[in-house]
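Q: My labmate handed me this sequence with no annotations at all. I'd like to see what the chain might look like in three dimensions before we decide whether it's worth expressing. Could you predict it?
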Amino acid sequence: MKKFFLLIPLFFVSCEKDYYREAQLLDKSGKKLEAAHYYEKYSLVSKKGPEFENSLMRAGQIYREFGLCSKAAPFFEKIARLNAGSEISSKATKYLYLCPQYYPDESVKILTYGDSQTYGKNAIEELSFKKSLKDKSLWIQKIYAGKKLISKSYIEIGVEGLFIFEKKGVERREIIKYPIRKNLSWVYNGRTFKIGDLGIQVNTKAGSFSGCIKVLEYYGDSFRQVFYYAPRIGRVLSTIEHSGKETRITELISYERR
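A: Here is what I predict for the chain of 258 residues:
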């Protein structure tokens, strides 16, 4: 009988290790949602240690990457509560607010935009992933007129505080503010931005994107530029709105994942 009771804790230790090992293998092989399930199972049978904290963080990050904010939130909340004041707590709190992720996730390799009139025959903007940096990523931007390359530069896309920003040279724009809610507005460099409709379906040459948000950038009282952002992709459509009517200017015509 004593041997039986001694085997019980050994059984749970074995389960813990198996869950965590399986989660890591699935994570590395790209089966993210399955990995999140095993990270979650591990977090339920283990209550402390670096692997426990990592399982909570990875489960939350994966669910966040897929726009499953309600599933991600409990993991980030638990990390923030258990590690109040620490670096990992600060990171978890940031992820909790910055969901869904309306900028390119780590899997996006190339984003190609074209003019909506000819789908890129007249003009193309290509963003190619260069490298990841702390809280931001570096992209190579190429602009074509027809087939002729007319400019090449670097753009940073990242997060600072509760803002998603884009930076090109010395020019920086705070393009989205969190937490996302309709009619949320902010002013940056003398220009007013405002979040319009949420949960929009946007159709582009590259495909149909759900769960998009509409962001308006004001130029005076009657004229404004409008940007539509999709979860995990970022900008998918830009228009000009004047006197209540929108004209499509550029849209995503193709994209590649790594």
